[in-house]
Write a structure and sequence with these properties.
This protein is an alpha+beta fold. It contains 22 helices and 19 strands. It is 40% helix and 16% strand. The longest helix has 25 residues.
Length: 701
C-alpha cells in the first residue's frame, strides 16, 4: 500500500483538479490560475526537509549535484514525454539552480511555483493546438512519423520543432481512433471532447498541485519510495484503507496526460475480470447513471474518486492498450467491492506434470496477516495425498506485505534459524528469525518468481535458496529491498486548522542471510523462464535514484543442500523439453517482436501503412493464439475477437515449472552419483552427497 500511496502522490501532474462539469466553458489561457504557496505549505515545507535530510536511510546533501537530480525529476513530472519544454526552456531552468537550492534549503517556494504556473500555460498551448488541428483535415497520407516514447530523446530545439511533435501526436491519436472503428468525424469529436475537458482541468489547478510536484521531485531524488502526500492525497489513501467507498483493485500511476495501470491487486474486481493488464491506459470512466468523464490530464486522486463508489455499483472503464504498432480500444465493466480476505488467501492444489507426477502448487498472492497459518493448513492438505512428489510455491506478481509473515512462512520450510537481516541508517542490524523448531514440509521445493515478485516475496525466495531448501525458477525479481515509514506532518501542539499531509521515507534495508542485499539486483532464478514482464519498465533497477546494492557479513546458518550441483542436469532436461515446444517458441517470438517495436524510435502516421501494420499484427497474434489453443486441445479460431474477453490460456510457464519440479524431486529423492575419487559410496543417496561442506551431525543423520 505504501507503493500505491507513493504513486498517487508522485504523479500529480500539471493541470488537474476536481471533476469538470459539462456546463463549464472551455477556459482561455488568461483564465489559468496564478498559484502561490499557502500557509499550510509554508508550515509543512521545513518539516519535510528536516525528515528527508535527517531521518532518511540515505545521507542527503543539499548541494549542486542534488539540485540537478531535483531538476531532472521536475522535468519528468512536468514534461514526461519531453514535448512541452524546448531546449532553451530547460537551459533556463538549469540556470536557476540556485533558486531550486533556495527552495530545498530555505523553503523559498517562489521559483517552483513560477515554474509550475508556466507549465500550465505550456500544456494549455499543446491542448489548444490539438483542438485547432481537428478543425481542418488531418493529413494521414504523408510519410511523417511520431515518437511515442521521447523520455530519452532531446527536448525539442524550438517552438517549431515542438509543434511538429504535437502535429505528429495528433495524427497518431486520430489514426488510433480510426483503426478502432470510428469514422473520421467521430474520431475528431472524441479528440475534441477529450482535450476540451483537459483544458477545463488546467483551469482548476490549486496550490497543492504545485507544492506536491516540487516536494515529490525532492523526495524521488533521494529514492523512488520516498514521497510526500498532500492533505487530499492523504485523505484518499485513508479512505482506501478504512472507509466504505469501494474500488476496482488496481494500482494506478500517471504518465504525462495518461492514467496507467501499474499492477492488479490480488482478489480484486480487476483481477477477477481477467480483462485488465499492467500498462493499460484508462481514458474515460462511465458511471451507472450514464455520466462519462474523459480523464486525459486529470489528477490521479481525482481519477480514483471517479473509479470508487458504493459497494455493488458498476463502473465502466474505457481502455487503450498498446498492441504492437497500434492501440486496442476496449471497455471493461466492473462491480465495485472490497478486496475480500478469502480472495487473497494462500491456496494449494495438486497438478500433474507431463510425466504424470503429482505436484502440489501453493499460490501466495500477498503476505497478509496470518498467512503462515493458512500455508500450514494448505500444506497439511497436500501432505494427506502421499502421491505428491514435490511442492511449487508460486510467488509471481506478489508485491510483498507484512515482514513477520515472510519470516514465519519461510519458517515452515526450515528449522528455526535466521531468515532476513534488517539494517538501519546507523548500521545497527536486526536478524529476523523463524522460531519454529519443526519443519512443516521437508520434501523437494521449487519457488516460481517473476519481475513483479517484490519485497517480502524476495525475502522468502532468497532465504529458501540460501538455505538450499528451494530451487528458484522464473525470472529476476523486482529488487525492492528497502523499508519505509509513514509519518504525518501535523504535530499535537500545532495551532493551525489546515491539514499538512503525510510523508513516506526509507528507514532501513533488507539483507539476505548470505550477506547480499535484495535491493536493486533482486533475486535471480536458477532456471530462467521467458519473462512476461518487461524488465526495462518494471523493477528497481530502472529507477534513476534507487538505493544501491551492497552486502554485509553473512549470518550463521546451516544450509541443507548444495543446489548448484543439481543445476547442470536440470537445465539440460529443461532445455531439451522447450527446444522444439511450439508454445515456448511463440512466447519467444512475441517477446522478440515486442522488444523490436518498443525499441523502434519512430512510428509512421501514414494511415494506409498503419492499416497494413495492424493487419500484420492481427495475423501474428492469431497465429500464436492458435498455437496455444492447439496445445490446450482446443479448436482454432478465425479471429482473436472470437475468444471471450475473460478467456484464460493454460499457464504454460507453470506447466514447465511442474516438469522441473518433477525432475528435481527425482534427483533429490532417488538419484545417485558415482564418486570417482572413492570417498563416497557410489549408491549413497544424493541428499547426503550434495549436502554443503559443513560439519553438521543432524544433517548427516
Amino acid at each position: 500500500m505504501r507503493k500505491l500511496s507513493k504513486l498517487i502522490a508522485v504523479c500529480t501532474l500539471a493541470g488537474i483538479c476536481s471533476a469538470a462539469q459539462a456546463k463549464l466553458e472551455v477556459p482561455a489561457i488568461e483564465d489559468l490560475p496564478k498559484l502561490s504557496v499557502n500557509s499550510a505549505e509554508t508550515t509543512a515545507c521545513p518539516r519535510i526537509q528536516n525528515a528527508f535530510t535527517r531521518a532518511h536511510y540515505k545521507i542527503v546533501n543539499l548541494d549542486d549535484e542534488f539540485a540537478d537530480k531535483v531538476i531532472n525529476q521536475l522535468l519528468k513530472m512536468l514534461d514526461y514525454n519531453r514535448n512541452i519544454y524546448t531546449a532553451s526552456d530547460v537551459a533556463e531552468i538549469r540556470a536557476n539552480k540556485s533558486r531550486i537550492l533556495d527552495a530545498l534549503k530555505q523553503c523559498d517556494m517562489s521559483y517552483p511555483f513560477e515554474l509550475y504556473n508556466a507549465s500550465l500555460e505550456k500544456r494549455y498551448l499543446k491542448y489548444d493546438y490539438f483542438l485547432q488541428g481537428i478543425k481542418s483535415d488531418i493529413d494521414v497520407e504523408s510519410d511523417d512519423v511520431v515518437q511515442l516514447d521521447r523520455r530519452k530523446q532531446d527536448f525539442p530545439a524550438d517552438i517549431e520543432h515542438k509543434q511538429h511533435l504535437w502535429k505528429s501526436e495528433l495524427k497518431n491519436e486520430f489514426i488510433n481512433q480510426v483503426l478502432n472503428g470510428k469514422t473520421p468525424e467521430q474520431a475528431k469529436e472524441r479528440i475534441r471532447k477529450r482535450y476540451e475537458a483537459a483544458l477545463m482541468r488546467l483551469a482548476q489547478a490549486n496550490p497543492d498541485d504545485a507544492f506536491s510536484v516540487f516536494q515529490n521531485a525532492f523526495a524521488n531524488s533521494i529514492d523512488p519510495h520516498t514521497s510526500y502526500l498532500s492533505p487530499a492525497d492523504t485523505k484518499s489513501f485513508e479512505e482506501d484503507m478504512y472507509l466504505s467507498l469501494e474500488g476496482i483493485g488496481a494500482v494506478l500511476s500517471a504518465e504525462d496526460e495518461n492514467t496507467v495501470i501499474v499492477s492488479i491487486i490480488p482478489g480484486s474486481p480487476a483481477e477477477k475480470s481477467k480483462q485488465l493488464k499492467p500498462k493499460d491506459r484508462i481514458i474515460a470512466v462511465h458511471q451507472e447513471d450514464g455520466t462519462v468523464d474523459d480523464i486525459i490530464g486529470w489528477r490521479l486522486t481525482d481519477v480514483v474518486k471517479k473509479i470508487k463508489g458504493p459497494k455493488g455499483s458498476k463502473v465502466t472503464l474505457d481502455i487503450e492498450r498498446p498492441d504492437g504498432t497500434s492501440v486496442k480500444n476496449l471497455s471493461v465493466t466492473l462491480v465495485r467491492e472490497k478486496v475480500r480476505l478469502q480472495e487473497r488467501e494462500a491456496k494449494a492444489e495438486i497438478k500433474t506434470a507431463d510425466d504424470g507426477s503429482k505436484i502440489g502448487v501453493l499460490s501466495i498472492k500477498s503476505f497478509y496477516s496470518n498467512l503462515s497459518q493458512d500455508i500450514a493448513r494448505e500444506l497439511t492438505k497436500l501432505e494427506s495425498d502421499k502421491s505428491v512428489k514435490a511442492v511449487v510455491i508460486d510467488l509471481r506478481n506478489n508485491g510483498g506485505g507484512l515482514l513477520p509473515e515472510a519470516v514465519n512462512s519461510t519458517g515452515l520450510f526450515i528449522n528455526a534459524g535466521p531468515v532476513v537481516v534488517v539494517r538501519d541508517p546507523l548500521g545497527n542490524q536486526l536478524v529476523q528469525r523463524s522460531q519454529d523448531e519443526k519443519m512443516k514440509y521437508k520434501g523437494p521445493l521449487v519457488v516460481l518468481i517473476n519481475g513483479l515478485s517484490a519485497s517480502s516475496s524476495e525475502i522468502m525466495a532468497a532465504a529458501l535458496r540460501d538455505y538450499g531448501r528451494a530451487l528458484l525458477v522464473g525470472s529476476n525479481t523486482f529488487g525492492k529491498g528497502t523499508v519505509q515509514q509513514s509519518r504525518p506532518l501535523a504535530r499535537p501542539y500545532d495551532f493551525i486548522e489546515q491539514e499538512l499531509g503525510t510523508i513516506n521515507y526509507t528507514i532501513a534495508k533488507f539483507y539476505r542471510i548470505n550477506g547480499g542485499s535484495t535491493q536493486l539486483k533482486g533475486v535471480a532464478p536458477d532456471i530462467a523462464l521467458p519473462s512476461m514482464v518487461d524488465d526495462t519498465e518494471f523493477g528497481e533497477r530502472n529507477e534513476p535514484n534507487a538505493l544501491e546494492w551492497d552486502e554485509i557479513g553473512a549470518v550463521k546458518y546451516v544450509p541443507y543442500l548444495n543446489i548448484n550441483a543439481f543445476l547442470p542436469s536440470l537445465k539440460q532436461k529443461h532445455e531439451a523439453r522447450i527446444a522444439n515446444d511450439p508454445v515456448f517458441k511463440s512466447i519467444a517470438e512475441e517477446l522478440e517482436k515486442y522488444r523490436k517495436v518498443k525499441n523502434e524510435p519512430d512510428l509512421t502516421v501514414n494511415l494506409e501503412k498503419r492499416r497494413q501494420m495492424q493487419k500484420d499484427d492481427d495475423a501474428f497474434t492469431l497465429k500464436n493464439i492458435n498455437v496455444r489453443l492447439k496445445a490446450m486441445g482446443k479448436d482454432p479460431v478465425k479471429s482473436a475477437k472470437d475468444l471471450p474477453d475473460d478467456f484464460e490460456y493454460e499457464d504454460f510457464l507453470l506447466t514447465e515449472t511442474l516438469n522441473i519440479a518433477s525432475d528435481y524431486a527425482d534427483l533429490v529423492n532417488g538419484s545417485v552419483k558415482k564418486i570417482e575419487d572413492g570417498r563416497i559410496a557410489a549408491n549413497q543417496p544424493i541428499f547426503t552427497q550434495y549436502a554443503p561442506p559443513l560439519e553438521n551431525k543432524k544433517l548427516a543423520e
